[in-house]
Write a structure and sequence with these properties.
Blueprint: H1 14-20, E1 31-35, H2 39-45, H3 50-70, E2 75-82, H4 83-88, H5 91-114, E3 118-122, H6 130-143, E4 150-157, H7 159-177, H8 186-190, E5 203-207, E6 215-218, E7 221-226, E8 231-232, E9 238-242, H9 250-260
Parallel strand pairs: 1-2, 1-5, 2-4, 3-4, 5-9
Antiparallel strand pairs: 6-7, 8-9
Helix pairs in contact: 1-9, 2-3, 3-5, 3-9, 5-6
Bound molecules: farnesyl diphosphate (FPP).
């Protein structure tokens, strides 16, 4: 939990401050996860190239990170670049996203320091280009001592790869400990998930979602399920397909999500 001293509500823009004032601080989520979606459509609505939509998405990340820090949110996870994106998108788009990620990190570490934000990653990040991994490590190390919001970027992730990686890790551990399968508990699996070091998300937002069209993992359960508007998850996590107007930033979407909770 954050102490009141770490809140910087007076720094919120007027629109976000107005939303914040309608919230009950004791009911605020501790962990908000956002699936970044709709960059291509944002660009399409303006007859712009998809690349510009991704650039706008990266700007929204800066805003949502800053808002999270101002309202004292301990955990913010952004599902930014999936394994499916990596495998199926045209190479030119993937290369552009990798350059964008690198330049986002280069130009935002100072902002993270100013906002006391700690940078972390989940997913198969070891499969990303070496120079991107190097920049990721640099940003993680530079911000490691910060004690405010932990911003986790999910990169090259998927629900199924997370399960495969968890089972591989657990299998290795079981072999070392000479354990047999019947002793596996839910907690054993949880310890090997990408998110093991964090509390489960209380709120999952998918920006610009086409509701119900894709599977998402949510809450404590790694079991994929379909998201639906305002649906209550298998655990206490709320899952919201937030369909803002194309001009709504992710930051406003996150604030609106908090207001719904
Ligand atoms: C979804 O939009 C977004 C992505 C595939 C990539 C988002 C990643 C970045 C902006 C890279 C940089 C990351 C950070 C955290 C700075 P979409 O293309 O699927 O949109 P659509 O559904 O409208 O086609």
């Amino acid at each position: 939990m954050f102490s009141a001293a770490t809140l910087r509500i007076d720094e919120l823009p007027a629109e976000e401050r107005a939303v914040y004032e309608t919230l009950k601080p004791e009911r605020l989520p501790q962990h908000v996860a956002i699936i970044m979606d709709g960059n291509g459509r944002w660009a399409g609505h303006r007859s712009l190239k998809r690349f510009l939509g991704h650039q706008q998405g990266a700007k929204s990340v800066q805003l949502v990170m800053e808002t999270a820090s101002r309202i004292g949110l301990p955990w913010l996870t952004l599902y930014a670049f999936s394994l499916e994106n990596n495998l199926r998108r045209p190479r030119a788009e993937v290369n552009f996203l990798m350059r964008l990620l690198k330049s986002y990190l280069e130009s935002n570490v100072q902002r993270m320091m100013d906002n006391n934000v700690r940078m972390k990653y989940i997913g198969r990040t070891h499969e990303l280009p070496a120079e991107v991994q190097e920049k990721m490590r640099w940003a993680e190390e530079a911000t490691a001592g910060n004690t405010g919001t932990t911003l986790t970027l999910a990169l090259n992730y998927s629900g199924r790869s997370e399960l495969v990686d968890a089972f591989r890790g657990l299998f290795t551990e079981m072999k070392q400990k000479h354990q047999s399968a019947e002793h596996i508990t839910e907690e054993d699996i949880r310890r090997h998930l990408y998110t093991a070091h964090m509390p489960d998300p209380d709120l999952l937002i998918r920006t610009q979602a086409r509701c119900g069209c894709r599977v998402v993992c949510c809450g404590r359960s790694p079991i994929p399920r379909y998201s639906s508007p305002n649906a209550t998850g298998p655990t206490s996590a709320a899952s919201i397909c937030w369909k803002p107007s194309p001009d709504t930033s992710s930051a406003s979407a996150a604030m609106a999500g908090l207001a719904i909770v």
